[in-house]
Amino acid sequence: MDATTEKFAAYAAGLSYGDLTHAAIHSAKRSIIDALGCALAAFDAEPVAALRVLASEIISTRPATLIGTQLRSSAELAGFVNGTMIRYLDFSDDYFGGKGMQAGPHPSDNIGSILAATESSGGDGKAFILGTVLAYEVCNQLVDHLTLGPHGWDYPTMHSAATALGAGRVLGLTREQLHHALGLAVVPNICLRETRKGELSVWKGLAGPNGSRNGLFAALLARVGITGPAAPFEGEAGFMKQLNAPFELGALGGQGRPYKIEGTFFKYLPIVYSAQLPVFAALELRKKVQLEEIESIVLYADAHVARNDIFSAGRWDPNSRETADHSGPYLIGAALVDGEITEESMTPQRYRDPVILALIKKLRVQEDAEYTAARPRALHCRLEARLKSGELVTVRESNPKGHPANPMSDEEIECKFQKQAGHLLSDGQARALLDCLWNLEQVGDMGKLFTMMVVERR
User: Fold this and answer.
1) Residues 39-50: pLDDT tens digits?
2) Which of 248, 308, 395, 447 is most buried, most CB within 10 Å of its CB?
């Protein structure tokens, strides 16, 4: 008996919309609004356009819609495209738990495929909320107990598991079918962390949504009677054996306990989460020094940040958008030189700017053990700039905006959405969509939601 699989499957089968608290439902709406804003902002990205072409070649009798269009495809391809739109610009949410050393995953990577499962099966807004809460619960429970990076594995496997159960619940799978879906999601979909090493490719932004797509496919397989490995976690060649790291799940959300979705980390800046706080520090440091007077800069951060891939050898000389938004040195340098981080920061004109590249050669990174001990419930960093005069200028920052200890308000979530969707949707269209999402439990036909998101070129 695989106790982990059984606990997850039993939980997924037993959870209903009526079990969800107001806090969980409201948190789901915040995450969905944030995710769809990110998706609309990525509508014109070249990889997204390429995936739309691929998905539009598929005809299905149970189709799902591609965000921003009236194009329809199979559920799993629509989920992949929509998940990629959510993830591509690296502005989507994050989660850190347990020891806080797991890099990623982004739980909203699951939303695209949960949405596709809901639409293609004729589900309503309540089903979409339930599937989203469930996917976040599974995904974030795994984050609490696993650290994959040192083993060379990547986190999309967590999305496969999370979406298999979230989508499976939406599709109405039985407890036994959910058990099979989890086996079909985990065993075939172990991912390598090479995705996030060195100069990054386009796949960096697609890997998580692809894990979720695989989870949806696993649920669809289980629905038609395909059985999966019975012990994907605890088997003699299962997940725990491969990691040499047995674990036991904690208490799952409900029955007086908060749901994991209530602890979501939102992004205030469109960059990798590990760089959020250092960039805030850089923006503050910029107010206190003249850049030409800087002799050297030291970033003191927790171990997760200091040893993160964002400061690995391949990130000090970015040559692609994907590397730039995951380059700690570049993002700190761009913040110091430009005084902001925007989509313009991710263009070759900025990430190849010689002034920025020269400045980051003065930067080094060092772990602060006290900061490591505080993570993830509290995040801290400091920047120390040694000036040519010998003066030392220090800036300290804690808990970036969007961290659960420094949350974004509903109004700030809305403002972020409107800024991202504003170049594609009219003010009235964006406002109507927001009103619909805040009342998502009243939506009976998910097609209405997609109609409201159609991009009409002005």
Assistant:
1) 999 999 999 999
2) 308
